[in-house]
Each structure stands twice: as structure tokens, then as C-alpha cells.
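If your schedule permits, I should be very grateful for your opinion on a structural question. Please examine both parts with care and let me know of anything in them that strikes you as inconsistent. The record follows directly beneath this note:
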Amino acid sequence: MVVSRHAQQRMSERDITFLEIRYAVACSRPQRRRQYRIFRIGPRELRRLNPRLHRRLAGLCVVCTARGLVVTTYRRTAR
């Protein structure tokens, strides 16, 4: 998996690690939006993970291209 410069900048701004991105990609099903795949860690995915990781991974979203390039990352806040 390759991370773009934009994604690296967003990761550093939002305190998201590469390991967290790998968790999101491995533990969630991708949603396809145009040419992108969006991996989201929601309540369903959190149930399958170690409770220690819940705070760091809750709401994490990773946007990738079909070839595996990470375009951007962000955290969704609860509404």
C-alpha cells in the first residue's frame, strides 16, 4: 500500500498512523464511490476489534484508489 503526499500530510495533522490505516483496510469492507474505495471503521467493525483500539480507530476513514494508493484519511465524528 502506497500513501500519497496529501494523505501523509493529513495523517500527521490528524494523528493517524500507518498501522491504523492498515487496520481500517483489513477490518472493513470497501464502499465504492466512483473510482475510489472508502474503508470506514464503524460500530460493526469495532465489535470485532480489541477494545483497547476502539478510541483510536472509531470513525476512521481511508480513501484509496483501485490500485491501492491511499488518497486521504480522516476521522468521522459522532453526529
